[in-house]
Amino acid sequence: MAQSRTHRIILAQPPGGPEVLTVETRQIPDLQADEILIQSAACGINRPDQIERLGFYPAPAWAQPGLGLEVSGVVVAVGAEVTTFRTGDEVCALVSGGGYSDYVIAKAGAALPKPAGLDLEDSAGLPETVFTVWANVFESGALAPGETFLVHGGTSGIGTTAIQMAKAHGARVIATAGTKDKCSLCRELGADVAINYREQDFETVCQDEGGVDVVLDMVGGPYVQKNINILKQGGRMVSIAFLQGSRCEIDLMRVMLKRLTLTGSTLRARPDSEKARLAEAIRARVWPWIEAGRLKPVIDSRFALGDVRSAHQRLDGGEHSGKILLIP
């Protein structure tokens, strides 16, 4: 890639609210042998981007500069060792940084072909959420068909994806959300039970439903003990965020007596080989669900790349359902 080519990236310097986001034009770096260059159709916005903007989620040292963890578009250049993609291919990709851009560099192993029948822009809403749900619910949580699955934040990007993936897998799904309309969306996506946590105690409802086998938790704090209380024998709780705090007090006796597994993970810092392995599993197991119409990204809104501050204001407000996209 010639060094005269430029692209826009989004920086948050210094950390703070949406007002700190700035657009900067830089040269596109040369590709490494295992990388592809994508001309962006759309860039997905995720909660970790907000946390990075606030200064609490620094990018790995190897990441491309700028915010953004996922992108869709057309391959316009490939590294010397890349054999899986060619120029002109339509793809979506998980990246460790620099995803809010006109041109995004991605590791070929963390890219996937655009699923058949899905709009290229909408495909930008897949990588971060699908990788996260697959790694945490299906691998760490070992969700099995016929089990009961609970996801908190059912209308978030992760939540809307988790509901559909778990349902496609044959699980019974319970979701929490904060409004009547959001609960309705959860049911439309396949949730068997939707709990308005502002009006109902999710612990009581889940106990009445017979308990759950797997919990995907993004709340932390006081939710952790409640999750433990509702898990069945051999149940698994997977933590991927902690909107109400990363510290809590729990009753280990319940963990021991019910033989529970409490685990959690982050995705961004995993090695390239691990992301490539996840991508292979997702292409084999999840892409057929998308192509059969059983899973699709829920798109809340679209903003121009240069209007990234407004997009983050939408994210911060918490009224969105599904994914927010930036369109270069």
Could you provide a short overview of the structure?
It is built from 10 helices and 15 strands. By secondary structure, the chain is of the alpha/beta class.
Could you walk me through the main structural features you see in this protein, from its secondary elements to its overall organization?
With 328 residues, the protein is an alpha/beta fold. The protein contains 10 helices and 15 strands. The strands form 3 sheets. Strands 3, 4, 5, 6, 7, 14 and 15 form a 7-stranded mixed beta sheet that branches. The chain has a 6-stranded parallel beta sheet with strand order 10-9-8-11-12-13, sandwiched between helices. Strands 1-2 form a two-stranded antiparallel ribbon. The two termini are 20 Å apart.
Q: What is this structure's SSE topology?
A:
Layout: E1 6-12, E2 21-27, E3 35-45, H1 47-53, E4 70-78, E5 90-94, E6 103-107, E7 111-113, H2 127-140, E8 148-151, H3 157-168, E9 172-177, H4 180-189, E10 193-196, H5 202-208, E11 212-217, H6 223-230, E12 231-239, H7 252-257, E13 261-264, H8 272-285, H9 287-291, E14 299-304, H10 308-317, E15 323-327
Parallel strand pairs: 8-9, 8-11, 9-10, 11-12, 12-13, 14-15
Antiparallel strand pairs: 1-2, 3-4, 3-6, 3-15, 4-5, 5-7
Helix pairs in contact: 2-3, 2-8, 5-6
